[in-house]
Amino acid sequence: LDLSNCSLHSVPPGLAEAATAIILDLTENPLTTLPSGSFLGFIHLQSLAVPLTLECPGGSDAWQDVTVDRSSRLCQGQRNPCNSSVELAWPCPENSVCAPDGPSLVQCLCDNPFHGYKCLREGTFPMLLFGGILGTATVSLSLLLWGTQRRKAKTP
């Protein structure tokens, strides 16, 4: 994705839609900062070129190779923060595993069959029970409102 020389003063809000990008060029733009969540979900990004005034997102530790040119900084080879020797600031809860979610960003995914808040619920979501209760409540409330509001309807 080539966004070089596009007169960008900030990261475009639609950039998240390009999360599958492998190569991204942001050089020759008057960017002042790269907000920390700008590259959330960019797990396939392998080469990022930014203006010289900016650091690589996540710092140089998030990349295998950082090269400085005359007018740009090239960040190559995104590292997996889950495999680093440095312990994570927020380790994943029990019954979950760490997964990369962009340069130096991680997400915790629940192991099977766990789900829910902090992966504490075991088994599958009770779809039949949930749907049955929701359907019964909806039909009951609809019949109640239909019965009580019928007298207010005007007949021709």
Can you put this structure into words, describing what you see?
- The protein is elongated and about 80 Å long.
- Among the domains are: 15-80, no CATH class; 124-153.
- The termini are far apart.
- It has 156 residues and is an alpha+beta fold.
- A four-stranded mixed β-sheet has the order 1-2-4-3, with no helix packed on it.
- It has one helix and eight strands; from the N terminus they run ββββββββα.
- It has one helix at residues 127-149; strands at residues 23-25, 47-51, 63-68, 72-78, 96-100, 106-110, 114-115, 121-122.
Number of strands: 8
Main beta sheet, described?
A: 4 strands, mixed
Mean pLDDT: 88
Strand order of the largest sheet: 1-2-4-3
Strand fraction band?
A: 15-25%
* Helical amount: 10-25%
Quaternary = single chain
Described by the principal axes of the CA atoms, the overall outline is elongated
Order of helices and strands: EEEEEEEEH
InterPro entries: ATRAID, EGF, LRR_dom_sf
Keywords: Membrane, Transmembrane, Transmembrane helix
Protein name: ARAID factor
GO biological process, one term: positive regulation of osteoblast differentiation
Give a nutshell description of this structure.
The protein has 156 residues and is an alpha+beta fold. The protein has one helix at residues 127-149; strands spanning 23-25, 47-51, 63-68, 72-78, 96-100, 106-110, 114-115, 121-122.
